[in-house]
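FAQ

Q: What does a record look like?
A: Structure on top, sequence underneath. For example:
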């Protein structure tokens, strides 16, 4: 009588699970890649919508009359709505970061001992913190108009709060995003996740964010656009070592 062959924990990709499913399809690396990809797509969409809404508030160079007209009209409703969308964008960003880190650490188990591994975590958390703080400062007066009947602060106060928010996002948050891009690219490239051309583009874009001094809102769309591109790659390209 022929005995069934036993397979150890190191079985090949041709092995099957108990229900007959190809082991490659059940590979946790595929699940991590999909989680990182879809959470990145959600982050890019929510971040863009939240930014468009929050940016409805007057800019730093707007005259006092624009501030008074805006906060006594109905435009502040959109800003307040944006304040409630930004936290979900931050949550999606954290989810994308952790899923990406998990994927990269599974692919390269010793990556936890590398400095970029921890810089990646610090940069991601710092970016979300700056995003939350900056959005809160810019939208503080708009939220006040929705939650209180107290007299509105003078335009100087609203402009000062906007300046604080712009500083947190454009000066500190953008640099944190650049560092996140650099560390992600280095780790992912070492793990064989990113193609060479995308790694080069990522480094160039990250360098641009690190040296940028503009306060134009368009600069903030560079990071979610990059996350979206990385997420698409993770969704359509199998991790290294996983058979189709």
């Amino acid at each position: 009588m022929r005995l069934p062959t036993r397979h150890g924990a190191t079985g090949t990709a041709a092995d099957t699970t108990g229900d007959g499913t190809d082991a490659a399809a059940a590979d946790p690396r595929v699940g991590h890649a999909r989680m990182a990809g879809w959470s990145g797509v959600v982050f890019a969409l929510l971040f863009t919508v939240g930014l468009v809404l929050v940016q409805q508030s007057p800019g730093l160079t707007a005259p006092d009359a624009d501030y008074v007209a805006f906060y006594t009209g109905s435009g502040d409703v959109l800003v307040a709505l944006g304040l409630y969308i930004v936290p979900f964008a931050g949550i999606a960003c954290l989810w994308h970061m952790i899923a990406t880190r998990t994927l990269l650490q599974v692919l390269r188990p010793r990556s936890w001992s590398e400095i970029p591994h921890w810089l990646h975590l610090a940069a991601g958390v710092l970016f979300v913190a700056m995003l939350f703080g900056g959005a809160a400062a810019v939208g503080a007066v708009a939220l006040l108009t929705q939650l209180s009947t107290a007299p509105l602060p003078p335009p100087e106060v609203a402009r000062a709060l906007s300046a604080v928010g712009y500083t947190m996002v454009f000066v500190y948050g953008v640099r944190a995003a650049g560092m996140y891009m650099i560390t992600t690219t280095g780790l992912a490239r070492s793990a064989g996740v990113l193609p060479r051309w995308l790694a080069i583009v990522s480094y160039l874009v990250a360098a641009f964010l690190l040296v940028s001094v503009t306060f134009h809102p368009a600069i903030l769309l560079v990071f979610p656009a990059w996350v979206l591109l990385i997420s698409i790659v993770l969704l359509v390209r199998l991790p290294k070592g996983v058979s189709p």
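Q: Is there anything notable about this one?
A: Confidence is low (pLDDT under 50) at residues 1-24.
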